[in-house]
Amino acid sequence: MALTPPRTLPPGLLIQTGQWVWSSLWQVMMSQMAPRDRDGAYIRPASQFRHDLGLPPELEKTEPEKIQPEKIQPEKTNSPHPAEPNRYRLIVGLSCPWAHRTLVVRALKGLEETIAVTLVVPRPEAGGWIFTEPFAGCQTLAQAYALAQPGYQGRCTVPVLWDDRHNTIVNNESADIIRLLNDRCNHFAQVPQRDLDPPDLRPTMEDWNTKIYHRVNNGVYRCGFAQTQAAYEQACGELFEQLDELEATLQHQRYLCGDRLTLADIRLFTTLFRFDAVYYSLFKCSRRRIQDYAALGGYGRELYQLPGVAETCNLQQVKQDYFGNLFPLNPGGIVPQSSQSFDWLAPHDRDHLPLSAA
């Protein structure tokens, strides 16, 4: 007696149903992970903690010419968080480019012995970042935010500049934190002569920062988190237009602002470091790799090879966290192998370009 085959949905209907279910779920998950505008373009929420570091009491009494008034604004020296060694720490995730900026500046300024670091890792099932070791009685970053501000309902992001004395958050905006490390913490840095925020270059730095933030730093996320074809194409076009401009500029000068390394370079570097391994494929930034740009690739290598910078870079952790935890973009959580990875230790070939002795 022949068995009657089980009834199944017609293949076409099955596929349509699956597409509808997955598309609906995808929209819900993306709306939580990546807020969008009416055109489907990703909108990055603003940071909520923007406090400053003030002068420690002993420097408030220092003669004005010895405290570099152009670097420390007098109206901000009444902060409840004076810049003191061994009082503050950075809470960072090694995969996060925004947190990575703070680690690079910490290394370049020689603040490793006076600014501690606490690590978090992403865990979607826990709703965000968790501490690798218990911290201040907290298991998750969200609990630390609640400790700093009871009832806090915003996003719990890294990096965080944390005040150990008061168990609270000073700042969670990377652009602020790297300036605080360079300017406010300079009196206890081991490399105080390295000024990454020189006053005479600030207008040029800000011009670059404005373009690079929108088109590159956040631009890769605008590509990866775009929820319409039009939003993706606009973001991708702007990204590669900006990379082309950077390539043309760096063919003729050592750094973004000329012959001196600045915070603008650090802000760009942490995105470049992740580009070929993650953004090129996962975020669909696939027109070209950074290693395909002669000047931009060499520039990235030079920054990577600066003393202390390589120790802040963990490409395996970057790949694991992006591919393993961004479920809406990579449901299987499979981390790809790289057959043509960027060789960060290859010669950068930029010694022929002028370099400031300062």
TrEMBL record:
This is Glutathione S-transferase. The active site is at C96, Y221. GO terms for cellular component: cytoplasm. Residues 52-74 have a biased composition (Basic and acidic residues). Glutathione binds at W129, R155, C156, T157, V158, E173, S174. It comes from Prochlorothrix hollandica PCC 9006 = CALU 1027. GO terms for molecular function: glutathione transferase activity. It holds the Pfam family GST_N_2. Residues 52-84 are annotated as: Disordered. The record marks Y279, Y322 as: Lowers pKa of active site Cys. Residues 198-322 form the GST C-terminal domain. SUPFAM superfamilies: GST C-terminal domain-like (SSF47616), Thioredoxin-like (SSF52833). PANTHER family: GLUTATHIONE S-TRANSFERASE OMEGA-LIKE 1-RELATED, GLUTATHIONYL-HYDROQUINONE REDUCTASE. Transmembrane segments: none annotated.
